[in-house]
Write the structure tokens for this entry.
Amino acid sequence: MVWMKWCLSMQPMEPESRSTLPLSIQGNGVPESNDHEAEAAHPYPLFSRIGQCLGLRQKKSNCVLTKPPGDRLFPEDVGTVLNVYGEDIEYPRLRILTHTGCIKDGYCNIDDLLLMPDAWVAYSQWDGRALTPEIERLIPKCHTWSGRKFISDPTSVFVKAYGGVQRGKLNGAYPVLALVTLAGNGHSESVFLSSVHVFLESEGVEKAIKPHDWEILIDYWGKEIYAGAV
């Protein structure tokens, strides 16, 4: 709780007198008054300080985390996904048909897509998941039967997978979405790839012998599947 220690050390705390304690616990624990206005006028300085600190922390978080405008859409709200659009890959924008037949625009988070098969299909066709220029150099535009192939020399690759796909089958199966983080050449970049199959050409499970031989494999999601010398 480093942030709390920092917050509480910002100003010296004044000793708490009996008059600042809630009236309900003065004396021997017997309530001395039902005057709620008086009680509210003398809050704990510690609680007040923590509350102020939480407020500052919330303001700081609001400056960092941004969400697209519109209503949050939950899986139970979605009847049919009509379109996926927008520029925020963490909070995709959806146009949906609700269970009551209404068309509605809003957003979801990336984990919600796991519970929306229709959204997976729409997401796999969404231009907003395009690769960044830095990643574009590391992952050439070549497709194999088992997905997009790495032909690069990263020093570290971390894969996290969403969704599922039948082994050896891409057409007709739900798309897989993989968050792949590459580190190397003095920078680190992340990219989302869809319709990725699970397969690894080189021997070994978690450590690839030849990084340029791999294909992105979701069997190893949540693990660093290659760690070279940085």
